[in-house]
Amino acid sequence: MGETNNGLKWGSNASFLLATLGAALGIGKFWRFPYELYTNGGGSFLLPYIVAILLVGLPFIFLEYGLGYKFHTSFTKVLIAINERFEYLGWLIVVIVFAVLPYYICIIAWDAVYFFLSFTKGWGSNPNAFFTNSVLQSSPGLSGLSHVVIPILLVVLGIWFIVWFISHRDVEKGIARAVKFLLPCMFIMVIFFVFYSFSLPGAAYGLTALFTPKWSTLLDFNVWISAFGQVLFSLSLGEGIAMTYASYVSENSKLADNGLTVVLVNSGLEIFISLGIFSILGFMAVSTAQPISSLVTQGTGLAFVAYPTILNLLGVWAYVIGPLFFLSIFFAGLGSTISFIEPLSSSLTSKFGIKRTTVVTCLCIIGVFLSLIFTTGAGNYVLGIVDEFLNNFALMIGVILQAIIFGWIYGIDKLIPILNHKSNFQVGRLWVVTIKYLIPIILVFIWLGGLGSLLFSHDIIKLGIDLVIAVVLIIIPMVLTFLPSKKDEKVESKS
Predict the structure, then answer these.
(1) What is the pTM of this model?
(2) What residue spans define the domains of the chain?
(3) Which of 108, 139, 286, 394 would be a feasible disulfide site paired with 377, CB 3.0-4.6 Å?
(4) CATH top-level class of 5-482
(5) 329-361 per-position pLDDT tens digit
(6) Which residue has the higher pLDDT, 72 or 472?
């Protein structure tokens, strides 16, 4: 078989499977999917969600696994092997993925703070005001840039150290060992959290509100866009993570089976966590005589505002279920965090011949400095802008271009034997048609919607920040593209 990417290799198929699961099971599971499920029709949303999994989720996972295994090299070198002119796109994608880390780690830091607060309900009687004024110490717009929130900064530094400690090692000794600990812990926490939630008075009311279908929503095009956007976000499609991890696998890996397992576990966990959250929201609705709709908030507010509010009503059991909830988020976040650094570190090591330890150390130092802006009083404001731009615009266009390049220029028919080798689940011509035709068409509609909302924004500061991000994302990949590689090696693909 020859050496895998940069001489790195998973010790077993289980290591590869756990690592890819860890990359997919991020913190968004605890607030993004429950909100999307509820606001887009409840039980009826599951139909477009399943369609999105079948048309985009599974096919693109298979594509990334197949390419990673065939070329056994970094994401950028895969694109170079297809056509040297595509190197810039490779660097663009891995830089965008890395750009998520500075603010993603900050959200994990907020969760770590709430984990310790949950033992005493330290957020007080007004969780909304506490989150805004005490934790974030938020100021309007950019006025808080000069004020650093010291507790958040210290926790962020600690999390960056953990990321460095795990990632600078060999993948089997670093990432594999980490996910073998993090994932079981997260699953145990989630199981306790959800099943305890089922026992609360009013749980049935919450579950009924969540899953009562609103069939008329299926006629709303935005609901379908939300479903496809959720699958893209949830599985981190097109970010080069799955492809990079697959480049480390041995020839005994069942690629198609692994891809199917990751998608099913990921989707199952999203729905399972939603059951727990809405069971508790149902309890809160019954206890306070408020409708469920008034309790459901978007984004981080569901975890750091609504949930502490709920815990204030739970009595003594809040001191059990609260720490379980926030610890679950922490484990889920950390498991996915270590995956964000891997595509860029692998690409840099591959092109410039720099040791993995050196590359990861430098990236973590850069990441720390980038995280500083999110630890200020303006951090939450900037975070929302950066997150929206990267996910709704930058990464989306990357996925579209990859589907076109790999589907039309490379010719993915040759990946079918690789994916089907030793796998019980088999792909065929329908998979090829999906990659070449359906995915580009569907995602173009979603991308145009994101672009429209970006261009028609009347927030000058927001547009200015977006412009700065866009310029940086254009320049850095360009520099990395034109810098000479240390070794002029051809990429050998695996038949």
Answers:
(1) 0.84
(2) 5-482
(3) 139
(4) mainly alpha
(5) 888 788 788 888 888 998 999 899 889 899 999
(6) 472
